[in-house]
């Protein structure tokens, strides 16, 4: 059953808050994700090579696949009552006493999440509706990469939209769904004085042109010392500054 059925978009966020609050793993998700991330960064491919995974510069797809495996493994190893790692076409984390609480994981090095086209079809493969945990991370190719964002919520298969062309295999969700049906559990503040253009563009209201102006301004005039300094950057208005004050550091 879709908990949002018949509800308007204005009420989605409060519904999501209640859904997440009622989930038995909600308080453990961030810790499980961050611990799994450190396992990936510090893990070694084998003792002969003595090579840490972070030194291999593995692809975002491989990084995501590791998270999909390691997070459920931690759930099992910590003996969280009633939860286990999914097998085959099951969801990633299974709740044996109430399948409603089973979780699908989605990972990405981009600023949203994506699925394959099958996510738009209720009858295709595993159940697509239910609880989701989404994890956005920095590419391993960066120095000291980190998890940027962890969100949790409930998605229905109708929230996924396939690419317009029939040959397209990717499915995505709308901004309204991203903002209101998935709530933020963890967000890494962005250092406005060190962030590159790609990282700056993950901030709401900052596109490629504005990101370039932020970088150009700090290179010309020195480090930003307060959020109000950003008002000197063309394209940044007070409503953007108000948002940025809670998500950036200096």
Describe what this molecule looks like in 3D.
Helix content is 30%, strand content 19%. With 250 residues, it is α+β, with helices and mostly antiparallel strands. It has two domains: 9-188, ECO RV Endonuclease, Chain A (3-Layer(aba) Sandwich), CATH 3.40.600; 191-249, Photosystem II 12 kDa extrinsic protein (DNA polymerase, domain 1, Orthogonal Bundle), CATH 1.10.150. A hairpin with a 7-residue loop joins strand 7 and strand 8. Helix 2 (29-42) packs across helix 3 (60-77).
The count of DSSP E runs of length 2 or more, i.e. the number of strands, is 11
CATH architecture of the largest domain: 3-Layer(aba) Sandwich
CATH topology of the largest domain: ECO RV Endonuclease, Chain A
Count of helical segments? 7
Number of domain units? 2
């Amino acid at each position: 059953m879709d908990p949002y059925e018949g509800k308007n978009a204005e009420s989605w966020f409060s519904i999501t808050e209640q859904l997440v609050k009622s989930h038995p793993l909600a308080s453990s998700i961030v810790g499980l994700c961050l611990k799994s991330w450190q396992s990936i960064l510090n893990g070694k491919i084998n003792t002969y090579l003595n090579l840490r995974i972070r030194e291999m510069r593995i692809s975002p797809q491989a990084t995501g696949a590791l998270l999909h495996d390691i997070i459920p493994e931690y759930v099992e190893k910590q003996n969280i009552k009633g939860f286990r790692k999914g097998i085959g076409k099951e969801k990633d984390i299974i709740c044996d006493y109430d399948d409603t609480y089973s979780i699908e994981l989605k990972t990405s090095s981009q600023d949203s999440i994506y699925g394959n086209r099958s996510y738009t079809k209720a009858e295709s493969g595993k159940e697509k509706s239910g609880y989701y945990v989404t994890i956005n991370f920095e590419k391993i190719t960066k120095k000291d990469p980190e998890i940027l964002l962890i969100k949790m919520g409930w998605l229905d298969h109708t929230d996924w939209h396939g690419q317009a062309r029939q040959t397209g295999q990717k499915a995505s969700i709308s901004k309204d769904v991203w903002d209101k049906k998935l709530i933020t559990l963890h967000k890494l503040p962005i250092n406005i004085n060190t962030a590159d253009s790609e990282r700056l563009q993950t901030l709401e209201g900052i596109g490629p042109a504005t990101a370039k102006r932020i970088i150009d301004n700090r290179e010309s005039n020195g480090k930003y010392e307060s959020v109000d300094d950003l008002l000197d950057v063309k394209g940044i208005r007070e409503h953007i500054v108000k948002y940025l004050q809670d998500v950036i550091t200096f």
